[in-house]
Amino acid sequence: MADSAVPAAKRAVALDSAAYHNHQILAQRDAASGLHAEAEREIEIFLRAGERARDPMMPMLAAYAYQVMGRPERARAMLRRLEELSRRQTVEAGVMAGARLAVGDRAGALDLLEESARNHEDSVILMLINWLPGLVGDPRYEAVHRRVFGNLPSPRGSPNHRLRSP
Questions:
Q1: What is the C-alpha separation between 25 and 5, in angstroms, rounded?
Q2: Is the pLDDT reported for residue 166 higher than 50?
Q3: Residue 95 and residue 60 in contact, taking contact as beta carbons nearer than 8 Å
Q4: Which residues contact 159 (CB under 8 A, 6 or more apart)?
C-alpha cells in the first residue's frame, strides 16, 4: 500500500466513516502488514457499505485481502458472494476476473479478462493496471494488454502490484 494513501484514507474515514472505499484501502494495508484482525474489521465495514451501494468491486477486493492474509476459504466465499450478486445485477467480467485470480483460478481469470476486453468494459483498464499482477507475462494477458494499451506500458505505480499472486 502506498504510504501516502494510508494517512489520506484515515483522514477521510475520520471525516466520513461511510466512505467505504477508504476502509478498503485500510483493509489492504492491514492485510499486507499482517494486521489480520484490523483487516477483517475494515473488510466487514467496506463489505456492508458496498452491499448497500450495490458495488460489485467490494467482494472482489475482499477476496484479494483474504488471499493476501492466507485465508483462501474466505477468498472463495467472496467469489461465491460475487457470483450470487451477478444473478441480481450486472457484474462486469473484469471484476469477476479479479475474484477468480484471488482464488487461484488463472484460466478463469484470463477467460473473463478477455471477455471484459471484447465487451469494452470500463473495468478492463482498472483490472490490467491494479488487480491482475499475477497474470503479467502470460501470453493471453499480454494480448489483452496490447489490445487495450497498444504498445504503451500500463502505469505501474499501483501498490497492488506488490500483492502476492496465487
A1: 8
A2: no
A3: yes
A4: 1, 2, 5, 28
Kindly write down the DSSP assignment for every residue of the chain, as one continuous string. Answer: --TTHHHHHHHHHHH-TT-HHHHHHHHHHHHHTT-HHHHHHHHHHHHHHHHHHT-THHHHHHHHHHHHTT-HHHHHHHHHHHHHHHTTS---HHHHHHHHHHTT-HHHHHHHHHHHHHTT-THHHHIIIII-GGGTT-HHHHHHHHHHHTTSPPP---GGGGSPP-
Distance of CA 71 to the CA centre of its chain: 15
Q: List, for residues 47-79, the tens digit of each pLDDT value.
A: 998 888 889 999 999 999 999 999 999 999 999
Domain boundaries, the chain: 5-162
CATH architecture of 5-162: Alpha Horseshoe (1.25)
State pTM to two decimals: 0.82
